[in-house]
Design brief:
The chain is an alpha+beta fold. 28% of the residues lie in helices and 25% in strands. The protein has a seven-stranded antiparallel beta sheet with strand order 1-11-7-14-5-4-2. Strands 3-6-12-9-10 form a five-stranded antiparallel beta sheet, with no helix packed on it.
Length: 287
């Protein structure tokens, strides 16, 4: 981290300026230096430095007649007053997750289940960008088959974003695309450890979301989502023994960093019927 600069010697009092005013002026100068250092700090992500730069530019557009105290207050907010900048070294790994239970209304939730059950014949086998064998077992339905629900769920996710930046320790970013698919995991289905932004085609994915929908009570077991400790810089799995677990729950929305290594545990469904499967509307928010 960048150290906060400390003046090594007192500054002479300017003629006609009181001692307290001069100390305040010195604090302004030190704050400016700190902001300059942060803009060069490579421990911050480009999006974090960009957000800070935009805040400073906004302050620079204030009226020249604005009191210096208001400018310093604004700089303080740019530096510390938002949840956009993570100015500590935490977390040392990624596996934060946010859950919204009862995310949609009961009617919307039932509509989501009806879409899943009514489109059985249109699902296609899933795949991976690496084309690895025996790494993923599930079927998917693309959002073009449910455009109205796609826009509905997309809107509600975007509205919820201000609530997730702080718990996910993630800086806000302009969302350029919301991808969505409907995935079904039946008996024996799974998805081994992976992340969602590890290829050139997926590198702009920032957040992953999963919306669970299934009949109640659930007629399957397993299918838990495991989020592993992940290196925030290169997306490497750090410790397979350390993870967080999210249990599939009808009408639950889950969001996490797309760089986080995660896994869908095997699903068990004794009836082996399509209707009893684990369904998710899942996708990614791209920067």
């Amino acid at each position: 981290m960048t150290a906060f600069p400390v003046s090594s010697s007192p500054q002479p009092t300017a003629p006609g300026v009181g001692h307290l005013d001069q100390r305040f002026h010195n604090l302004v100068e030190q704050s400016l230096t700190t902001l300059e250092d942060l803009l060069q700090d490579e421990s911050l992500t480009p999006s974090e430095r960009g957000k800070l730069a935009l805040d400073i530019l906004a302050l620079a557009q204030q009226s020249p007649e604005a009191p210096e105290s208001s400018r310093l207050q604004g700089m303080g907010h740019a530096l510390m007053g938002t949840r956009n900048l993570n100015l500590t070294s935490e977390p040392s790994y990624l596996n934060e997750v946010v859950c919204f239970d009862d995310f949609l209304s009961p009617e919307e939730n039932q509509n989501a289940l009806a879409i899943a059950l009514g489109e059985q014949k249109k699902f296609v086998p899933s795949s991976t960008t690496s084309k690895a064998d025996n790494y993923r077992q599930s079927s998917i339905l693309y959002a073009t088959h449910f455009p109205q629900f796609y826009h509905q769920l997309k809107h509600k996710i975007l509205v919820a974003l201000p609530e997730i930046w702080h718990p996910l320790k993630h800086s806000p970013f302009p969302v350029t695309q919301v991808e969505m698919q409907l995935t079904v995991h039946g008996d024996g289905c799974y998805y081994k450890v992976h992340n969602d932004s590890g290829s050139p085609e997926t590198v702009t994915r920032e957040l992953t979301y999963v919306y669970y929908v299934h009949s109640e009570p659930a007629q399957f077991s397993g299918g838990e989502l495991r989020l592993y400790q992940t290196d925030p810089h290169d997306g490497r799995l750090l410790d397979r023994q350390q993870f967080k677990t999210v249990t599939p729950q009808n009408n639950r929305l889950v969001l996490f960093n797309s760089r986080c290594q995660h896994e869908v545990m095997p699903v068990r469904c004794s009836s082996q019927t399509f209707e009893a499967s684990r369904f998710t509307f899942n996708g990614w928010l791209r920067r």
